[in-house]
Specification:
With 339 residues, the protein is mainly alpha-helical. The protein is 79% helix and 2% strand. The N and C termini lie far apart (92 Å).
């Protein structure tokens, strides 16, 4: 963070900008994530929108989650190009703000949507006697998604109203959200509010709620449920908590620590934070597994499609075998006649 253009980069940030191998490694991970993201979530969106009926609250939440993942997949190629050009952004301040907003909106909308799916499962499994009165209904699910987007956009509003590009004269590059101005926000209180909103409101609180919901579901099913249902619930809880702890927790914790160190002690953890952001994108590759274990209809439709493909391939193999069999016998017959 800096307040003027005549400044010198700290050693950690300079090392990041000059480390070509790290840049290539992060870009390679982003390329793999982009491919898996667009293929997996594109197929999931088609299945959720056109092949899954009725549109239950869980399905609506999954469509919302898939939409944020596809946005991220569309934005990552810009991040890849930016890093491969040596952290030089040449698409202007507006595009930088849009891409940065898309990146962080995906993370926090995903977190809030996973919390919503967890609450919906908690009310349906742990509180079945109150199902009609308390469980999320379709209009409420749509409204919840709109509220999620509104909350995230309000917290991240500084990213929309500030020029996030910065000319690093000593390296001859223009960065995008890698060197922040202190006057991006008016004072330290505004910075504290911004960080509190990102780390505590958009991450820590949803993480606690989601953990409580899935632990309660597992405890309920452990007492009285079928083995298959219990196993699916445990796998779903494991995947969701894995996404939180492996994808979301490192970047949010490091963001808080890095900002405090940078504002008050002149130190930096930027290299570690940049790497953690890379891993946070992996959530978009794991989300289709959440759909599989969370939705019975999604699971059945996917199995049906896979079975149809496997049956068609088996039929083609049988036809080839028959053709080969008849061809062989006809050849033998012709040879016998020739003799």
């Amino acid at each position: 963070m800096t307040g003027n253009t005549s400044f010198k980069l700290d050693n950690a940030t300079r090392a990041l900008f000059l480390d070509v191998h790290t840049s290539i490694a992060i870009s390679a991970i982003y390329m793999v994530v982009t491919a898996i993201n667009l293929i997996g979530n594109g197929f999931s969106m088609w299945l959720l929108v056109f092949r899954t009926h009725p549109k239950t609250p869980s399905i609506i939440f999954m469509i919302n989650l898939t939409l944020t993942d596809i946005f991220l997949g569309a934005a990552l190629p810009f991040q890849i190009a930016y890093q491969l050009q040596g952290y030089h952004w040449n698409l202007g301040p507006k595009m930088c703000s849009i891409m940065t907003l898309v990146f962080y909106t995906n993370m926090y909308c995903s977190i809030l949507t996973m919390m919503a799916i967890g609450i919906d499962r908690y009310l349906g499994i742990v509180k079945p006697m109150r199902f009609k009165e308390t469980r999320v209904r379709k209009p409420m699910a749509v409204m919840s998604c709109l509220i999620m987007w509104a909350v995230v956009l309000i917290v991240l509003s500084p990213l929309m109203t500030t020029d996030l590009t910065f000319d690093v004269q000593e390296l001859g590059i223009t960065t995008c959200f890698d060197v922040l101005k202190k006057d991006m926000l008016p004072n330290l209180y505004a910075w504290a509010f911004f960080l509190f909103g990102m780390v505590f409101v958009l991450f820590l609180f949803p993480f606690c709620v989601t953990t409580f919901c899935y632990v309660s579901v597992i405890r309920k099913l452990a007492r009285n449920s079928k083995t298959a249902q219990k196993a699916r619930a445990i796998r779903l809880a494991f995947i969701v908590l894995l996404v939180f702890t492996f994808c979301f927790a490192p970047s949010n914790i490091l963001l808080l620590i890095h900002t405090v160190l940078r504002l008050f002690y002149g130190k930096s953890l930027y290299m570690a934070y940049k790497l953690s952001l890379c891993f946070s994108c992996l959530n978009s590759c794991l989300d289709p597994f959440i759909y599989y274990f969370a939705s019975k209809d999604f699971r059945q439709k996917l199995r049906r499609i896979i079975n149809l493909r496997s049956l068609s391939s088996m039929d083609s193999m049988k036809m080839e075998h028959k053709e080969s069999f008849y061809s062989t016998h006809n050849t033998v017959g012709l040879e016998a006649e020739h003799r």
